[in-house]
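Comment thread on ticket #2218

A.B. wrote:
> Attaching the input chain for the structure job we discussed in standup.
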Amino acid sequence: MAAKKKVAQILIDVLSEAGVKHCYGVVGDTLNYVTEAIYHSDIEWVHVRHEEVGAFAAGAEAFVADRLTACAGSCGPGSLHFINGIYEAQRNGAPVVLIASQLATDTLGSDFPQEVDFESIYKNCSVFCQQVINPHSARRVFTEAVQTAISQRGVSVIILPVDISKAEVEDIICYLPQQSKPHLSPDITELKKAVELIEQGKNIGIYAGIGCRYAHDELVQLAALLKAPIAHTSRAKDFIEYDNPYNVGMTGMFGTKGGFDMIKSCDTLLILGCGFAWSQFYPDNATIIQVDHDATRIGLRHAVNCGVVADVKTTIQALMPLLTSRQDHTFLDKYVALYRKAVAKLDKKVVASSDQLIHPQYLVDLLDRYASDDAIFTADVGSAMVWLSRHIHVNGRRRTMSSLKHGSMANGMPQALGLQKAYPQKQVISISGDGGLAMLLGDLLTAIQEKLPIKVVVLNNHSLNFVELEQKGEGLVERYTDLNNPNFAQLAQSIGFYGKQVTNAEELEHAVKEFLTYDGPALLDVHTNANELIMPPVTTLDEVKGMALYSAKATLEGKGSDFINLIKDNFIKK
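C.D. wrote:
> Ran it. Output below, let me know if you need it in another format.
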């Protein structure tokens, strides 16, 4: 006869068997049996101050460490608070299990205090969402949840009523989590069609996405064979940019003319593991071949001439022996040169231009220069993620992360907490906006409580800067974007951080070096130029009209000096 166990213990056994190292959350009444089981397991509980932070942290660990990670909360508002971070993890394809503890089953449906229908809420942002209704089937449900999260690369939500959690049943171990990672090979018919179209092309381009995560070397070999420049999405930055003489950078709003013009000018484009959402950045008339492991993604963003449903790495390996090596590198050379010119133009702001003005690009360049070779960087949504994408260099050991698919504020510092927990020996740096940091400011306390030496840089421009730029680009005068900030350095010092504020560009380099070498959690509050424009790879007529309209409206409202300062800071001063 099998030994009897509480269902909560069976849950933690299954998570441990599936490789979970950490569980992020806030304790509460209906979760007590789960946390008791965690206490006696090899899984470490990470006590955050807000559940949204726990979900961001768990999702970051799951995505970068590529392993199943857990978060857990109490009934009602406790588990409801995870929702935004869970959407982030699901859109990132991060394998996460959320344990949403629930009221006892005999109270459900009675409008009992704190009752929330978690299944209707979480089913739209998960790959698995099920409430345990029978303690005897608990192990099967738990095993299915972890296997689905791992195999489908997403969030599994286990809704666990407290009476089920504490029920004791015989643990008949007939369900064990499996973690196979099969490779999807291309169909020979699709492969031959792709070869035929590539051979017909003259100016071949490659657009690489996150699906190239494990195919760096093969991608470079393919580019060498075809003399094809490689543009990439911002999510693929870590895996494409380094040791890649064929790189022409990103396209989209974060990109430069190298990537943008190459994609617009090629006659044949290989889209590899890429689901970039903005169709205006795809070519207008090129022959398009798309490779993706998910058939539902083929042709989703733009019509394609050939779709190959397979893993990118496996497909490239199958393609190369069938392709003719090319000698003409005119197309390649043109866009590599254009990319380098565009990068040099961006780097003009990577200077200490005056005592009064700190360009955010200069700050991020200093972080890039003095951070360790295997540092992990996170960035808040908005201007912070643009500067990270453009000015942090990767090398195959560094990693970068932002909320690029979900676009959530306040992601940077919480993700840094999860990454520091996953990689305790590495330097983890969050480039946080002042608005983003303030939103979840309380979880700086988590770094102290959990002894996590994260480094938080605040781009303090006293505004919701990216929103302000959007408003101006639409021809509007900025509304409700101003922030009345505290001295973040003093605030950080009051809870046990190293804290320093910098308002003078000449002091910044020394401050960055001191901040990065501090042995413990540290915060650097840097007052950056509030008028810094984020220049896209090309400027459209509508954008010019919008900025002209903004200047006229600003002048009429007595804010003409703001427009003059914007022009000076971006087009006159270095």
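A.B. wrote:
> Thanks. Noting for the ticket: The mean pLDDT is 90.
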